[in-house]
Design goal:
This protein has 408 residues and is an alpha/beta fold. It contains 19 helices and seven strands. A five-stranded mixed beta sheet has the order 3-2-1-4-5. A two-stranded antiparallel sheet has the order 6-7. Helix 3 (82-92) packs across helix 4, helix 5 packs antiparallel against helix 11 (233-267) and helix 5 (126-159) crosses helix 13 (285-295).
Length: 408
């Protein structure tokens, strides 16, 4: 059997092929373009790569065009963690020497000796991978939007507290179109205090508000005209210009988050697993898409529910050495899936009576809030695995049987 290792870089890649005995059969230095990919595929075909007998490939990344080219057909691609590859390198040399062709050879030998200990990339469908791209991008855009909103809030506290007071009653505060439009209309508290009722109403209408415009305009006008401390005029104007520059970034982040959310809402319902995911309490389209993005739609990816729970970081881990033994939460996990699971468990408390009762029982036994929610997520993710494997929708009575819970 032939094994391939690729040490990838930004512009060029090093390729190594070894046989069962560890002998180096071939090595190439290819470019990161179509010509280089063709050289790589021709090299693999020269040594017997075909649909019936594909050559497994080890590489230190799971993304990019090179990985997409390698994943064509039935070829298995193994994404090796760079830290793991560094430990394997020490097995072959104690002098700590390093080279790109040598790293490619190390990666090929990893598959030759320990291929059973590593997992190939899951065989997700194109639709599933597209949803993963959109869901992760939408999640990143929300995090970016919140980061910019926090920066803007911190800046307004320095010279414009009346704006924070005026927007405090609105959900999402500074991220709302009304707040952004008012800040563009009056970048400083001195200008805000001079706004008329008509100008405030016009700003709210430009932001898309339909109801309660007159009442909100009167309330905001009173807040802006109240007695507030002020920075010196020149400093206030400079801070206003800084705020407008930051507001442009926040506008772009809000627009990106909204557009990506629409893209997720359009793509996710087309997936075959969407109906099962949406049947679970606490899961809407956006959160269900994040769950699907991380677990994928390759139903053979996890051997059992325990593997999925460990991957999500919901199941505890035992550390035992000598007379010491401790059970703690997992730190090595899929952080995106773990974050989505926390939101899922929190939302399910109101959407499911059984989930709420399970959470209350965990709190009564001494769990803190986070531990109780993690335990609830652990149970829900196991039920999701069962439903996806057996193509069943969530059933409240089966998931949280009341008679058994009362007896317990």
């Amino acid at each position: 059997m032939i094994y391939c290792g690729i040490d990838w870089a930004e512009n060029t890649h090093d390729v190594a092929l070894v046989d069962d005995t560890g002998q180096l059969l071939a090595k190439r230095h290819i470019t990161d373009d179509a010509a280089g990919y063709k050289i790589l595929l021709d090299l693999l075909a020269e040594y017997g790569d075909s649909k019936e007998t594909p050559i497994p490939v080890a590489i230190e990344t799971s993304r990019g065009l090179l990985v997409a080219v390698l994943r064509t057909g039935k070829r298995k691609v193994y994404a090796i963690n760079p830290m793991a590859a560094a430990r394997y390198r020490d097995r072959h040399s104690v002098s700590r020497k390093k080279s790109d062709p040598g790293d490619a050879l190390v990666l090929a030998n990893i598959l030759r000796t320990d291929m059973h200990a590593h997992r190939p990339l899951p065989e997700d469908s194109d639709l599933g991978r597209a949803i993963a791209v959109l869901a992760r991008a939408q999640q990143d855009s929300l995090w970016n939007r919140q980061q910019l909103a926090n920066q803007l809030r911190s800046l307004l506290r320095e010279y414009y507290p009346s704006a924070l007071k005026a927007f405090a009653t609105w959900a999402n505060g500074l991220c709302r179109p009304e707040a952004r439009e008012l800040l563009k209309t009056a970048a400083t508290p001195t200008r805000a205090a001079k706004l008329t009722r008509t100008q405030l109403q016009a700003a709210l209408k430009r932001a898309g508000r339909k109801r309660g415009i007159e009442g909100e305009a009167d309330r905001i006008r009173l807040v802006f005209r109240a007695d507030w401390a002020h920075q010196p005029l020149l400093v206030e104007d400079a801070l206003g210009k800084q705020m407008l520059a930051l507001l442009i970034q926040l506008e772009a982040a809000c627009t990106a988050a909204d557009q990506l959310a629409e893209a997720v809402e359009e793509a996710f319902p087309q997936h075959p697993d969407a109906e099962i995911l949406l049947s679970f309490p606490g899961l809407g389209i956006q959160l269900a898409a994040r769950i699907l993005a991380e677990i994928g739609d390759d139903h053979a990816r996890f051997a059992d529910a325990r593997g999925l729970k460990a991957y999500a970081g919901s199941s505890p881990i035992t550390r035992a050495s000598g007379k010491k033994s401790s059970i703690t939460r997992r730190w090595v996990k899929n952080d995106r899936l773990n974050h989505a699971g926390y939101l899922w468990a929190f939302a399910s408390l109101r959407a499911s009576d059984g989930a709420n009762a399970h959470y209350r029982r965990r709190r009564e036994t001494g769990d803190w809030h986070a531990a109780a929610q993690r335990n609830l997520f652990n149970r829900m993710i196991g039920q999701l695995y069962h439903c996806i494997q057996h193509r069943k929708l969530f059933d409240e009575d089966t998931a949280f049987p009341t008679e058994l819970a009362a007896a317990a």
